[in-house]
Specification:
By secondary structure, the chain is an all-alpha fold. The protein has eleven helices and three strands, in the order βααααααββααααα. The protein has two domains: 305 residues, Rhopdopsin 7-helix transmembrane proteins (Up-down Bundle), CATH 1.20.1070.10; 52 residues.
Length: 360
């Protein structure tokens, strides 16, 4: 048995010389991960719920692009939740005894969660890039037509099923255990390490080549379209649509960049894992939550900054909330005015009755 250098021990951090009764000491990478989680995950969940709720009212959110964004968002949130549970156990001794008592099943789950979720997010970025390629370059093609008319559930299910199918050989050869109940460092067999390494690296190699090809075609089409439109009067609707396609394409391109960063991080970790000096690979693994977390955290940031549909939806909700608050204030003022009027009338009636009694 050997320590899995690629994924299983990717969060095995430092200071393993501590007493078994002590918990690991948090690092600035952990602090950054926790800060980003507390700030961005609630926003991310709110955006995804907005996509689901708005599908019935807005046709825009019924497109395959937003369906894949919801599926990718679920993968991002699951990744953060799984890692956060292990983070709480390692650094705050919250649930570590329970997790250790459920081994080897818990060890198998945490060992496979890293590479599988990484594969799942990589497949998601590939599918989203493919959707942008079909929309920009093959908008009148048969495949784009079939994709636009495919049920959303099948699109999301296909995303997760493809990733599971790719990772299945590594899943079937899982052999792992925890080092102890404090560090929860997973010790995986070399066979499992080889399967996970080959599976993920092959997947991302194919995805990288495909994404580079598709984006080269997208750039060519957009440059040609700009040359054709130069000096030609075009409608505002056409101009807005092209600007929207450019923004969405830029959003996906940034996702691809962060995906590449994570991929090269795993390659570096894999190389350092076979170094005789274990301190370097352990120090390198400290950056796992930063790299892997940012692959998930960048999506809500890009949705808020580059996606006009999301911005308009947020603005509309804020305007509606503000309008409702104003209506409540107006109703409150009206009720106060009505109550004052009724009180004045009652007082006038009492004065009038008193005057009648005096004259009587």
């Amino acid at each position: 048995m050997s320590t899995s250098p690629l994924f299983s021990a990717d969060i095995s951090e430092v200071r393993l010389q501590k007493s078994p009764r002590d918990m690991l000491t948090p690092t600035w990478q952990m602090d950054l991960f926790i800060f980003e989680t507390l700030i961005l995950i609630p926003i991310y969940i709110f955006i995804l719920l907005g996509f689901v709720v708005s599908r019935k009212r807005h046709k825009t959110f019924q497109s395959p692009y937003y369906t894949l964004m919801v599926s990718q968002g679920l993968a991002d949130i699951c990744t953060i939740v799984i890692y956060s549970s292990l983070l709480a156990a390692r650094y705050f001794s919250f649930g570590n005894i329970l997790i250790y008592s459920l081994s080897p099943y818990s060890a198998m789950a945490y060992t496979n969660s890293g590479p599988f979720m990484f594969t799942l997010r990589g497949v998601g970025v590939f599918l989203i890039t493919t959707q942008r390629y079909l929309t920009v370059c093959k908008s009148h093609g048969t495949f784009n037509y079939q994709l636009n008319h495919c049920p959303p559930f099948l699109i999301g299910l296909g995303h997760w099923f493809i990733a599971l199918l790719i990772y299945l050989p590594a899943l079937l050869h899982t052999e792992t255990r925890f080092e102890n109940e404090i560090t929860l460092l997973t010790i995986a067999s070399r066979t499992h390490l080889q399967y996970t390494s080959i599976t993920v690296m092959t997947t991302y190699l194919v995805a990288c080549i495909s994404v580079i090809f598709m984006y080269s075609q997208i750039i060519i089409v957009m440059i040609r379209a700009r040359k054709v439109d130069h000096g030609v009067s075009i409608t505002v609707k056409t101009s807005n649509k092209k600007l929207k396609d450019a923004r969405l394409t830029l959003h996906v391109f940034i996702l691809v960049i962060f995906c590449f960063i994570s991929f090269f991080f795993y390659i570096g970790e894999y190389i350092l894992a076979y170094d005789e000096d274990n301190t370097r690979v352990r120090a390198f693994r400290l950056y796992y939550p930063t790299v892997s977390g940012n692959l998930s955290f960048i999506n809500p940031i890009m949705l808020l900054t580059l996606n006009k549909d999301v911005q308009n939806a947020f603005c509309c909700k804020l305007k509606v909330c503000g309008h409702l608050d104003e209506q409540k204030k107006n109703l409150f003022r009206l009720s106060e005015t009505t109550n004052n009027t009724i009180t004045c009338r009652k007082k006038r009636g009492e004065i009038y009755d008193g005057m009648i009694r005096i004259f009587e």
